[in-house]
Amino acid sequence: RGSAMKIVDKIKQYEEQGRKFYSFEFFPPKTPAGVANLYDRVERYGKMEPAFVDITWGAGGSTADLTLELATNFQKQMCLETQMHLTCTNMPKEKVDEALKAAKEAGIQNILALRGDPPHGAEEWKAVEGGFSYAIDLVKYIREQYGDYFGIAVAGYPEGHIDAESYEADLKRLVDKVNAGADCIITQLFYDVDNFLKWVDDLRANGVTVPILPGIMPINSYASWKRMIDFCKTKIPAHIWEGLEPIKDDDDKVKAFGMRVVADMCRKVLDAGIPGLHMYTLNLEKSCVSILKELKMTEDVQLRRELPWRARLDGKEDVRPIFWANRPKSYVARTQTWDDYPNGRWGDIRSPAYGEVADYHSQDHRVDRGDRLKAWGEPETLKDIQNVFSAFVEGKINRLPWCDTKADETSKISTELLAMNRAGFLTINSQPAVNGVPSSDSVYGWGGAGGFVYQKAYVEFFCMPELLNKLIEVLDEFPSLSYNAISAGGETWTNSDRAVNAVTWGVFPDREIVQPTIVDKESFAVWKDEAFALWKSKWQDLYEPGSKSHDILAECSSKMVLVNVVDNNFINGNVFAPFLKVFLKELGE
Questions:
Q1: What phi and psi, each to the nearest 5 degrees, are found at residue 494?
Q2: Whole-Å CA distances, 358 to 55, 327, 476, 533, 556
Q3: What is the dihedral of CA 409, 413, 419, 422, to 10 degrees?
């Protein structure tokens, strides 16, 4: 669990399990806003548990730095197995060395080695001095320098490369690339399945045994699709032309037709024994997801989740504190230097050396000042602040400083959370109680087939000290509830002598009980520094010093306390009961 793998090894695992898979390809956007949107989109794609994701290298190396940055963040912070493209275009050996070194330092183990397209403005491809002329040269060089560390994929062209002298010559060139050290083939887009399957048979007849993944391009709009197939000189079967021609000016009909056609294509490919699909997303989402849903390939997503959260790929990780549930990339960034992680036995858990409070790198692109101002407005009173938190629970805004996303499972308790926020308990993290739900459940499931999962109800929030005092007054009436509270200055309140409390666990056939999510006091004290700092760095600093918005947010961050409450009765408890009692007392007063 939680270790990087070469794609060829992952494919072997899928084949041994008798499971088909999919992967997604993205390209580096041209603007900061595009990069921000891509991170959000990749995060959503990641919840579909792809075998890997893939990021392209711009024509002529034009996006080299951004490609490396995106690949590194996908691998290290989003914990997605990532394949990075690397081309020969405008790349002398020194630049190739730099890229490979950076990839290895990021934990990336998969490279797609390509010759690449000509630089912008050039009509034909030319090697640079001291560089490589063909993809096979790049494959050989990577193997010479790094041995077996990298998995190396190469491109395949079922209809022959447009620059090839003949189909046979192109086939031989691909066989040579495999013999030089490539261990996977990913194809150019195609729509003629019969031709693709014949091409696969021809490769197998020439001794190629490595996995061959078909590159699948959705049809999103007629005009953009036509430009792409003209550029690639892709052969299109007559029935696709005949279906598209009458509807080419209606984007909705084109998408619907394209989804059916491409899904049928994929079904035929998979039925022929191809192990998986490589989806060319074009940085879009709906079409790829629709195709995979049509194929019913997304129905077992929860069974692919080893843990309730996505484990990092650079070391074995079994347990996480719950506090970073809505900021997982921050947790990963702050624990990157750890060699050992806390484990589920608790006996040897040590106070970990968390990294400094700082935004994780990918967040620099994610939400600009204008987006935050639009979402959060210009609050002037505590009631205004409560309204922003309430809007997040209601789905009217899509993030808070403490929450990159809203978990699906919170919908079960959204009514109670909304009441809390309106009453001044500003929630930033929560989970409902779960008692023995099958591990295949679409919302709560994780850990593989045949198991049962459990959760204690949990809620974490900011509130003013006077509200905390009222809550503490009634908590003695609820013996199954434990709480921890802490101020920005480090003053603490608690009714629990437990250092660690497991709040999520699973029971599976032929395995020990798995306890992946905890509440622990030491990590809570570390998290509070980050949680209080976010008031200022993400929200207060949007406004001019001395403005009403700036002042009310400064008051919140300096005066409020951070509190977590756990209901240890996961069978029939009610974590919200004491809050209701506080509400009723206030109404009575």
A1: -160, 155
A2: 26, 12, 38, 9, 20
A3: 0
For the chain, the straight-line distance linking the first and the last C-alpha, in angstroms and rounded, comes to: 54
Instruction: State the chain's maximal CA–CA distance in angstroms.
Output: 88
- Reported as a single tens digit per residue, the pLDDT across 231-260 is 888 999 999 999 999 999 998 999 999 999
CB distance 96 to 116 below 8 Å: no
Per the DSSP assignment, residues forming a β-bridge with 403 are 400
Res 148: pLDDT: 94
The residue from 15, 16, 25, 555 that is catalytic is 25
581 by DSSP, 3-state: which?
A: helix
In tens, the pLDDT along 171-209 reads 999 999 999 999 999 999 999 999 999 999 999 999 999
Q: Which pair of tokens denotes residue 484?
A: 């921890």
Predicted structure pTM score: 0.82
Exposure string over 87-105, b if 16+ CB within 10 A, otherwise e: bbbbbeeebbeebbebbee
Q: Give yes or no for a contact between 543 and 379, defined as CB atoms under 8 angstroms apart.
A: no
How far is it, in rounded angstroms, from Cα 54 to Cα 80?
10
User: Is 25 annotated in the active site?
Assistant: yes
